[in-house]
Amino acid sequence: MYRLIADDSNNKKRPPNPRTNANAFEVLTFSWILNLFKVGLKRDLEENDLYSPLNDHLASLLGNELEEKWNLEINNKYRNPSLLRALIKVFGPKYMFYGFLQFTNEMIKMSQPLLIGELLEFFNTGGSEEIDLVHACTCTSGLVLSMLITTCLRPLYNLEYLQCGMMMRVASRSTIYRKALRLTALEEKTAGQIINLISNDVNRFDSGIVYYHVLWIGPLQTILVTYFLWQEIGLCSLFGVATYLLFIPLQGFLGKKISELRLKTAIKTDERVRLMNEIILGIRVIKMYTWEKPFANLIKYARKKEIQQIRGSAYIRAILLSFVVIQIRFQIFISILAYILLGHYMNIKKLFVIISFYNLLIMTMGNLFCQATTKMAELLVSIKRIQNFLLLEDKDGQLKNTTKKDVGLKNGTEDLSNFSIAISKATAKWKNNQLRNTLENIDLTVKSGQLVAIIGPVGAGKSSLIQAIIRELPLIKGR
């Protein structure tokens, strides 16, 4: 039945993705997707109308690439394995390329206040006579060109950021799924914890991927903004920038607190999902004994503990975002007040340039930098949780002293006549520090088609023997 369903879904071919053959103009203007909008105007979109994914976005390919780099990390004896390092090796070059594109966009954007300031100087009746009409036209052309470039570049690299985050999420989810299939029963990982990793932790790649480059672009932009403000108002520019720098240690401290709360929230979420999973599995027994209210209270209490951690993170985020409202007004006020108190004259050009540069600075270092520190703290916690899961012990791929044969077909079914179970002097125990062996000197031979009954009192090791046969219980010696 499953194979028929899978084959039926594969037969529904989707149209090829036009992004594959799109030219530079179509990529910049996103016109390659217009045909899909035309179809949506005529009728409701269906599943078959959606384009097939790009080859670079396939889960199998992304999972293989990440798993290959992760295996290199595990096999490296000179340093501890790092999932973050493996992700950087796979997705780092592409992500850094668009980061430099964003840096270029921010540098072009910084020219706009200067160009507008020159135009204000030209139209000001009391302005300088050195600015002629040709210079004003040049500034206007440069302003239009810079706005056109920034308008085209920003959606481009933001889309690529989102795609890169999606690729990280898909690759991590594929790796987690493959790891879950190889886990040994010795590892005390519940289904709820694995579900939380796949559904919650990997989503951190999507939520903050747009902001991470601000962590290095922001300080560089701060230096350049300080230089341009120095050209306009001299020493007074340092007062406004210094006022902002006083908030950075507080932002770092609050970002660390968010990271701690995120880890506590993940633990509470794992517990709640585990309880829900166990309740769903035993819902018949719960209904039969009318235990709905006690178990509902249990879930309610677990959710309450989880909400407490989430509420604490929300409070800290609100404090970080409130800095944006406070900082920009306070910086402008301090700089202008210091400039006037020193006996200087403030004209329209200087006022506009100062406000514009501070707006650029507060957008990057105020709003986006706060978001970046928060999202980065949450991402590092999620990566650490995924890494700890990937470092769990695998069950052996193949038992020692066994042979691997291909299963033949007989009348369309698998021919198992030549296969059997043979255990010779097998000794096993669940944990290495366990004093007594769970199984000791076990000999068992079961031929194909033979019915064998294993009996014994409770705790004799019947279930452990089955676990050893399916390679969940590791052997100390024997085969």
TrEMBL record:
Residues 1-11 have a biased composition (Basic and acidic residues). The chain crosses the membrane at residues 209-230, 236-254, 314-342, 348-370. The keyword Glycoprotein does not apply. Residues 1-20 are annotated as: Disordered. GO terms for molecular function: ABC-type transporter activity; ATP binding; ATP hydrolysis activity; chloride channel activity. Keywords: ATP-binding, Membrane, Nucleotide-binding, Transmembrane, Transmembrane helix, Transport. GO terms for cellular component: membrane. InterPro entries: ABC1_TM_dom (IPR011527), ABC1_TM_sf (IPR036640), ABC_transporter-like_ATP-bd (IPR003439), ABC_transporter_C-like (IPR050173), CFTR/ABCC7 (IPR009147), P-loop_NTPase (IPR027417). Coiled coil: none annotated. Residues 100-369 form the ABC transmembrane type-1 domain. PANTHER family: ATP-BINDING CASSETTE SUB-FAMILY C, FI20146P1-RELATED. This is Multidrug resistance-associated protein 4. The lineage of its organism: Eukaryota, Metazoa, Ecdysozoa, Arthropoda, Hexapoda.
